[in-house]
Predict the 3D structure of the following.
Amino acid sequence: MKIKSEYKKLWGNCLKKIQSSVSEQAFETWFSSLSATSCSGDEITLQVPNRFHYEWLESKYSEILNTAIIDVFGVSLKINYSVLISQEQNEQSTSSPAGSLIPKQFHRASQLNNRYTFSNFIEGKGNQFAKAAASSVADGPGQTPFNPLVIYSNPGLGKTHLIQAIGNHILKTQPKMKVIYATSEKFMLDFINSIQNNNSTKFAQYYRNVDILILDDVQFFQSKEQTQEQFFHLFNDLFQQGKQIVLTTDRHPNELTHLKDRLVSRFQSGLIVDIQPPDLETRIAILMKKAENEKLEIPYDVTEFLAASFTDDIRMMEGAMVKILALSSLTNTDINKNLSKTVIKDILGDKAFKKITMKDICKKVSKETGISESKVYSKSRQVDIVFSRHISMYLCRQLTKNSLTHIGNHFGKRDHATIIHACKTIEEKMKDDKQTEKLINKIQSELQ
């Protein structure tokens, strides 16, 4: 165990790093009251004022916390949380004065969060196929044709919940199996640390000595060639041994333009499934289930209002609910629509009740480039018209949640390859041409 004064000092340095990464208000609200109560082995325990505080840190600031800890401590530490027990509570309780750890599920070497299960995953039309595939893999890891299983969707639609549910189900039904869950960023940081500390063998053993490898957000590997190379060899080794591999990404592997073709080919050798944004009824059910799990009472009209406000990011929607509960508790305010509106506006800003459409984008591009909308939608190959069309396609991809197919249909039933080509063309042009970059940034900022 680290000497108390040593880890306390290191935690103080972590707070300084965090303070430079977030706004003054965010730091005062969510970090100034944090204290490190213990640090042992590969774990650190942070004390928080209440459970709402913990929920908000986990949903919004986990990456900032992990990055600061790695920078200061030099290693990745598992973060445990304990709730501060007041003097009055302490007198009435037989619990340790240090507080009660929450939640216990973060203590496992697998890095899995036990709160993610199939039983509390709300199924809807948009995720039925993905859930069925995940359940099949969980029942027979390495025994189905779904290896690897690749689940893709826009952020916040439940990929992480589903893949961790796979790991938790396996550990419950086959406890002797070794399951490792990691984000792709953690995988890369572990790889870099192994090189810096000259312990590549330990890194290889950790990730190869598994029965199931679950890796989140593999789009993070794009343009990171050494990490891709390392993962390629790991993938081959596990696959040859019949070990189960589960991956997620924020888009179809074919759209990971800066990922090596041989890796994309490996991903395509198994099953690739997507998750679509849930409909209103499913979003309401998700919020009601979360409230039930946390033993919280939220008026139905507030639940419905929240569900209607967040159409395509479930994580953000749940985070909004946590913030509403936190504000209600800390300010002794009733949970109602007015409080909900304040929180939603704070999270989404001016976009809170505004949605950018592909029509809006094309109209704005037409105005800025001097090319009529009809020509943007036409089949013309004239250079300036193609340029405007490519900008429109690129911004539709960046500013809306529409799939490549939907974007292609909007531009006269063009296929997804055409949209990918347009996006890559604009990305390359922005690198070499400052005027193009300036134009696109101007259009984007005015639309938002």
